[in-house]
Design goal:
Largest sheet: 8 strands, mixed
Radius of gyration: 16 Å
Length: 189
Amino acid sequence: MGKIVLMMSMSLDGCIEGPGHDISWHRVDDEVHRYVNDRVRELGAMLLGRTTHDLMADFWPTADADPAAPAAVADFAAIWREKPKFVYSRTLEHVEGNTTIVRDVVPAEVNALKEQIGGDLGLGGAELAAAFLRQDLVDELRVYVHPVLVGDGTPLFPHIDRPATAALHLTESRTFGNGVVMLHYERPE
């Protein structure tokens, strides 16, 4: 059965975006982009919150149509189109491409999806991640820490009212040339 893998970027002070949904401080150069592309390519599907999905769906389906697009951008555009996506939203009525709308985070449905897909499921979006964390559904975390202090914004890990789980195990870390650090944690078996 696949795992739920939280995959998000954050600032040193824990924000995924600054005020006004600003992500201009993200340091995604070619090295980071190629690494992320390879990780996303390995996934069976992507689980996205509404905001994350809308931002991605506005750009990635045609990002490779620009002949000046860098190779890593064109590569991710192809991955985006092909990868099955499940967008969690109670209000969204229509999606395009290889995307399915899911209304609520229901543990039994998430576990059934993990068995059905046959690969790991990449989780993105702060509110959706919080819902999955509240229900103890996240198996791994791949956090990309950018060497920036945002000061204010949307935290990656909002307050979750539940007892702490066992300590996570750091299974991999990688420092990129631009100062971004990837931390890969897994739950204990």
